[in-house]
Inverse folding.
């Protein structure tokens, strides 16, 4: 399973995002494979969430090409509308600050995620209004699918309560289940382990690995929790100040000096940069 | 508990006095010009009669009332909002038995014209209530479900009313033939307005819709060749009972309702018939909107109200979803407008002012956003309260305002704020495999 022959699921080429004078993402290129978990890591403010927002259509990139390969078709994500990225290209995402439909029930959250399919089955409301058998079947299928995800995430007992009443960790899981209910090709998770305790975090690792193996989709992950990143990712991309400073399998990235420098600060900070040192030497010599 | 008990030990009378004095001062400033000086006509000249005694009474009442309120609030949770404590379980009961309550209301509504206490005016008021219920349910789709604040809803009501009146005048269309056209035209207006403005959110959308309401009102006032301007359009035909008109003397060759059924002519036949027409329209609207809520489109509206960004991330097109809510809401207002025109026989721009939009919005908010029965309760209260309060003459609007303030203080999220889920897992049959 090296994935050398198959075209990558997602190809990011020369992605640059500028906000006025600030360059949040600078000439970033990487690829994410189907059946693989790709983690994007980096210190705070490195531009990770900006990459996500470009991928999912919330920002339009200043420069760059984002290609999603699905069903032998290429979708140029930087050119299509936000909602169509989710609907047609199959890029689902979760949010750093959870965005559930708080007042609706847990089950309804998962049914809303299957909107497109149900809308078509209800013949754009006309057939649903008449309660045609086709719509009833589609609704039953949608509920079964939601039930399956509720069972997998251990939320069955909460199904008919409001999403807002769930505990924090359960809300994170529900958001992942909701994203999966859209049948995505690529699942983008923005800090899924934030605020989870060790047990919940281990459970999340298991869930993500199962999703990758069973559904064969690609997972793109932003994460600070190194136990998650190192535990499950197949490929790690490290950003610092919007630039890619390292890329590779987790073990290689962990020992990369540039990464250590970005996270822990300059190791040789007492040494002056060579050009200044040379200038100083020249000044002291006359 | 301890927190509530602590201030009861040493009552901060000084602070309360200061607070009550401030309230009294505000009352004084307001009451001197409004209550204290009465303009009366003496021998054809306008003179001002001072009524400072009344001002003094008002100020004293406010001072003591404020003091009593502070004391009651400080006395602890047992005294706090007694009505709210009563209503909370009652509201839950109402919400959980919505179906039973709904059937009871429908039975009562059908029987109403034949109940012993029902006079002609009762039926007329009930017709007015039902017209507002119709409008409330329509606006509920836009505001309650989709969360789009529409301050110009009356515009679509006006489009419905005028399109029926004009089609009847120009082409002699009857009410039943014009009803769908009125709805479709109003929906078309909703679609055309919605298209450019629905990318706006919240306050901005509210301002644009407010402007649209005013534009329609101004056009009706000033486009005299078509709308006859402020003079209005009269002789709007009344609906017929399967072709049988409600008239005392019909033109030759036409059988009237009372002749056909061998009854004596009575004007209340027409009033009762109109009541049943609006009741039927209401029941249809109710069935339609309740069904919409359980369909993907209805759930998408609610999801959009909860979080538009999450909707986009799930592949829901926010523009078309909002547009559908706006268009369907406008269509329902169009039906209500056509009914209003036929019931009144006469329409003029006077009936389609911002106050009307505000009343409909108040019904939706007061009823509890998204609640069907809440709209019925709120419309009943809002329409009948001013009627019941008639004996209080000039204080009637004061009572009305106080009642609205009281409801919003006690039930800030509306009379029935509980949201019923559109589907429940525990009610679903388990799938085969």
């Amino acid at each position: 399973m090296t994935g050398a022959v198959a075209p990558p699921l997602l190809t990011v080429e020369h992605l640059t995002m500028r906000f006025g004078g600030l360059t949040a993402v600078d000439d970033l290129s990487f690829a994410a494979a189907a059946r693989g978990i790709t983690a994007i890591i980096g210190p705070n403010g490195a531009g990770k969430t900006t990459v996500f927002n470009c991928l999912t259509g919330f920002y339009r990139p200043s420069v760059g090409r984002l290609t999603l390969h699905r069903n032998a078709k290429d979708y140029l994500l930087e050119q299509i509308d936000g909602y169509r990225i989710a609907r047609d290209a199959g890029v689902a995402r979760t949010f750093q600050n959870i965005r559930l439909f708080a007042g609706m029930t847990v089950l309804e959250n998962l049914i809303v995620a299957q909107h497109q399919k149900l809308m078509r089955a209800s013949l754009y409301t006309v057939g649903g209004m008449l309660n045609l058998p086709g719509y009833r079947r589609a609704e039953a299928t949608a509920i079964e699918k939601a039930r399956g995800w509720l069972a997998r995430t251990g939320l069955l007992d909460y199904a008919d309560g409001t999403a807002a009443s769930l505990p924090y960790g359960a809300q994170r899981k529900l958001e992942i289940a909701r994203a999966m209910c859209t049948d995505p090709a690529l699942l983008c998770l923005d800090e899924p382990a934030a605020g989870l305790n060790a047990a919940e975090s281990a459970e999340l690792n298991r869930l993500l690995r199962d999703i990758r193996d069973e559904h064969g989709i690609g997972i793109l992950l932003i994460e600070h929790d190194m136990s998650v990143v190192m535990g499950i990712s197949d490929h790690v991309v490290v950003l610092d100040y919007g630039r890619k400073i390292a890329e590779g399998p987790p073990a290689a990235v962990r020992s990369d000096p540039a990464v250590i420098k970005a996270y822990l600060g300059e190791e040789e900070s007492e040494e002056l940069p060579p050009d200044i040192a040379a200038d100083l030497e020249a000044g002291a010599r006359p | 508990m301890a927190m509530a008990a602590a201030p009861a030990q040493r009552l901060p009378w000084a602070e309360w006095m200061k607070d009550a004095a401030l309230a009294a001062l505000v009352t004084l400033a307001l009451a001197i010009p409004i209550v204290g000086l009465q303009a009366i006509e003496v021998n054809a000249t306008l003179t001002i009669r001072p009524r400072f005694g009344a001002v003094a009474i008002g100020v004293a009442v406010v001072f003591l009332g404020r003091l009593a309120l502070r004391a009651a609030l400080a006395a602890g949770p047992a005294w706090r909002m007694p009505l709210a404590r009563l209503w909370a379980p009652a509201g839950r009961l109402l919400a959980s038995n919505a179906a039973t309550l709904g059937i009871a209301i429908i039975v009562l509504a059908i029987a109403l014209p034949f109940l012993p206490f029902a006079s002609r005016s009762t039926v007329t008021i009930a017709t007015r209530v039902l017209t507002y219920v119709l409008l409330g349910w329509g606006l509920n789709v836009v505001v309650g479900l989709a969360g789009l604040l529409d301050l110009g809803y009356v515009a679509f009501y006006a489009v419905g009313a005028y399109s029926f009146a004009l089609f009847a005048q120009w082409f002699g269309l009857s009410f039943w033939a014009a009803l769908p056209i009125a709805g479709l035209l109003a929906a078309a207006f909703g679609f055309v307005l919605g298209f450019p403005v629905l990318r706006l959110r919240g306050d901005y959308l509210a301002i644009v819709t407010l402007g649209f309401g005013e534009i329609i009102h101004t056009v009706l006032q000033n486009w005299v060749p078509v709308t006859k301007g402020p003079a209005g359009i009269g002789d709007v035909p009344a609906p017929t009972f399967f072709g049988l008109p409600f008239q005392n003397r019909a033109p030759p060759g036409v059988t009237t309702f009372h002749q056909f059924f061998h009854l004596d002519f009575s004007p209340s036949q027409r009033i009762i018939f109109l009541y049943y027409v609006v009741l039927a329209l209401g029941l249809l609207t109710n069935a339609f909107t309740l069904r919409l809520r359980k369909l993907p489109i209805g759930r998408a509206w609610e999801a959009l109200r909860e979080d538009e960004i999450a909707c986009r991330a799930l592949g829901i097109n926010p523009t078309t979803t909002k547009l559908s809510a706006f268009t369907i809401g406008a269509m329902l207002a169009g039906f209500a407008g056509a009914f209003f025109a036929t019931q009144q026989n006469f329409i003029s721009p006077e009936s389609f002012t911002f106050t009307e939009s505000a009343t409909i919005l108040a019904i939706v908010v007061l009823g509890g956003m998204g609640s069907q029965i809440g709209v019925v309760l709120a419309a009943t209260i809002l329409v009948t309260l001013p009627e019941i309060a008639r004996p209080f003459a000039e204080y009637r609007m004061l009572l009305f305002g106080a009642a609205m303030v009281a409801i919003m203080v006690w039930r800030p999220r509306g009379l029935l704020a509980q949201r019923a889920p559109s589907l429940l897992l525990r009610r679903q049959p388990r799938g085969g495999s």
